[in-house]
Amino acid sequence: QVQVKESGGGLVQAGGSLRLSCAASGSITSINSMSWYRQAPGKQRELVAIIERDDITNYSDSVRGRFTISRDIPKNIAYLQMNSLKPEDTAVYYCKVNTPQVTAFGWGQKDYWGQGSQVTVSS
User: Fold this and answer.
1) Would you state the pLDDT for residue 105?
2) Each residue's pLDDT tens digit, 37-54
3) 27 has a pLDDT exceeding 90
4) What per-residue confidence (pLDDT) applies to 10?
5) Which of 6, 39, 81, 97 could form a disulfide with 114 if both were Cys (CB 3.0 to 4.6 A apart)?
6) Distance between CA atoms of 115 and 92, rounded to whole angstroms?
7) For residue 44, what are the CA distances in angstroms to 24, 38, 96?
8) Which among 22, 28, 112 is positioned nearest to 69, based on CA atoms?
9) Statement: residue 104 has pLDDT above 90
10) Can you say how many angstroms the Cα of residue 32 is from the centroid of all Cα atoms in its chain?
11) Share of the chain above pLDDT 90, in %
12) Can you say whether residue 53 is alpha, beta or left, with left for phi > 0 and alpha for psi between -120 and 50 degrees?
């Protein structure tokens, strides 16, 4: 099993910055990708940023240019640096870790989620 733990959320004024951390631990042989999602009240969970095994990154249009995802491979930690925060960035931010998994049918993948970290941006 893999455990995922987010940290670094909090309250910040508009225009400010926060850095989220996501630590993966447990039975990890390798990680395919680490990603950040967010869910605002009354809205669906949405993908914010993803970093793949070969460090290719991708971002949602709403955060591109303001957020940066990175990771420390030996420590299995991913970071989300959030700059120029806006009130609409207010949400619970979740980390997802995707790992390869052997199944009865061959290689597959499995997702592990953290509990989430609240980010609140005041205007």
Assistant:
1) 86
2) 999 999 999 999 999 988
3) no
4) 97
5) 6
6) 9
7) 24, 8, 16
8) 22
9) no
10) 14
11) 88
12) alpha
Mean pLDDT over 103-108 rounds to 86
Give dist(CA 37, CA 93) in Å, integer.
6
The type of residue at 41 is P
How long, in residues, is the chain?
123
| DSSP track, the chain | -EEEEEE--EEEETT--EEEEEEEEES-S--SEEEEEEE-TTS--EEEEEEETT--EEE-TTTBTTEEEEEETTTTEEEEEE-S--GGG-EEEEEEEEEEEEETTEEEEEEEE---EEEEEE-
Bridge partners of 121, per DSSP, are 12
- Are 76 and 22 in contact by the 8 Å Cβ rule? The answer is no
